[in-house]
Specification:
By secondary structure, this protein is mostly beta strands. The chain has 2 domains: 1-60, no CATH class; 61-352, Neuraminidase (6 Propeller), CATH 2.120.10. The protein is built from 5 helices and 24 strands. Strands 3-2-1-24 form a 4-stranded antiparallel β-sheet, with no helix packed on it. The longest helix has 10 residues, at 50-59. It is globular. The chain starts with a helix and ends in an 8-residue tail after the last strand.
Amino acid sequence: MKKEEFNMNPSLVEEIPSSIIWEILLKLPTKACLNCKLVCKNWYHIIISPEFADLRSSHCPYFTILLYGKVYKKRKNFMLLDLDKSAKIDEMGNLTVNANALIRFKSKFETAHDKLYVVNSCNGVICLKSWEQWSPYIICNLLTGQQMIVEQFRKPSCSVEVYGLGCCPVSHQFKVLRILKTKESYKHVAEIQTLGTNEWRTLGDAPHFQLRRSGAFLHGSLHRYSYRDNCIWSFHFGSEQFFDVPIPDTMKRELYTEVSVFNSNLCFSSLSNNCHQCEIWLMKEYCVKDSWVKQFTFQIESFAYRMPLLEMSCGKILVSYSNNVHLGVCDTESGKCKRVQIPGVSFDKVIACDAKFSKF
């Protein structure tokens, strides 16, 4: 059927079997899905449904990263970039990007962007915050245009140590977790707020985490490494309880360790060998200690550990490094890495971010 004929008969869209529509939409890049939302009401409701969001995570061949930074008139650029395993990187380190794979956003945050950073991402929703300790959390989905402010109420006897966004896997409610340290007893106490309630609930004592501004959300839990306990602590947003995830016996206590998700597996990157190498470990079976595998070892300079993002078909791994400031590509055989740039695109932060169109 010619394209012109199809455009002249929009009613033909309704004659396509629903199963075929789902199969096609699930494999489209993010920008194409945004356009398909405008075709008809049926396609719109499919794309914004939670079921579509869950299925797209496993069926879509694209991996999405969030790029942000390079302040202009106190406004940062926020961009979503779709990549697949066939992405090309030339000898100069330039990543070839199709114009249709990049989406730029004009956000309307009241807080000046030069004071904002991304705390973490969860199911397509991102949590932003300024550097001021008691500033509010900004929860938003760039694809739906939704935004919600979660206010904090200052507690003179406490300081905010750790925080992050998560989602209950049963109710699909988003929640913000924060851990306070009392100045008198130095105890760590967890508090949580379900979006839309405007109420912080106290959960009780909390573990002492290594201070990081990010965390890995997987299987309904937010994961962070604890240097003091030399383990990965997870907080489940359904049961609202802390659990420890065991790490390999050979894993020494490392100050420079970060947790992420890679290929749907819990992953941690740790410096070793006098900080000249970065080891990438994957937990092949969730919460099974013996399933940890040392997957890659990369050469590094100084303390710039690597966070794996995408396994490319050319035998290389796309990574972020230097606290997610830069993109790089690492050769899995030689362990050598080089910086990657995207021509015409400026950014100073990069994180993995699911592209989901369902509203929170």
